[in-house]
Amino acid sequence: MSEADALAIARRFASALDRCDFAEAAGCLSADCRYQTGRATLTGPVAIIASYRESAEWGSHNLDRVIYESEVSQDGDGFRVLYIDRITRRGRTHEYRCCQRLTFNKAGRITRIVHEELPGEREKLDAFFAESGVQRGN
Question: Is 32:44 a contact under the CB 8 Å cutoff?
């Protein structure tokens, strides 16, 4: 698989998540893909996609509006996806950013996803939620 092919798949995966097209996102994952969320390691497309779906459903139920965007770039042997969530609650807006690193197998499937918080982003998001009256469980 060429780097251009892997980049196209990384973009397809990120774009599918931006659109909450979980079936398309699942099609980019290997059967044994591992997702290191920062709190747990999930294995396999079913568990991984359930995590993304749960997060999107939480946002749609607890926020007035969420716009998901992403930017993909090459990063060493894999690719880096910068996720940008533009959220609105009670007239207040916030932009939260985090990234995930993707690793591929030779068949063009994602084998590993590593979530990384960017410095200060989670704290600013938590402050926005507190100021907006949003309760978020662990």
Answer: yes
- pLDDT tens digits, one per residue of 39-79: 999 999 999 999 999 999 999 999 999 999 999 999 887 89
Cα distance between residue 31 and residue 35, in whole Å: 12
Separation of alpha carbons 110 and 103, rounded Å: 6
What CA–CA distances, in Å, run from 9 to 34, 37, 48, 76?
A: 17, 20, 17, 16
DSSP state of 39: S
Neighbour order of strands in the sheet with 41-43: 41-43, 29-36, 110-117, 92-104, 78-89, 65-75
> What's the chain's length in residues?
138
- Kindly give the pairing relationship between strand 110-117 and strand 29-36: parallel
For tokens 């690719």, name the residue: 79
| Phi, psi (rounded to 5 degrees) for 99 | -135, 160
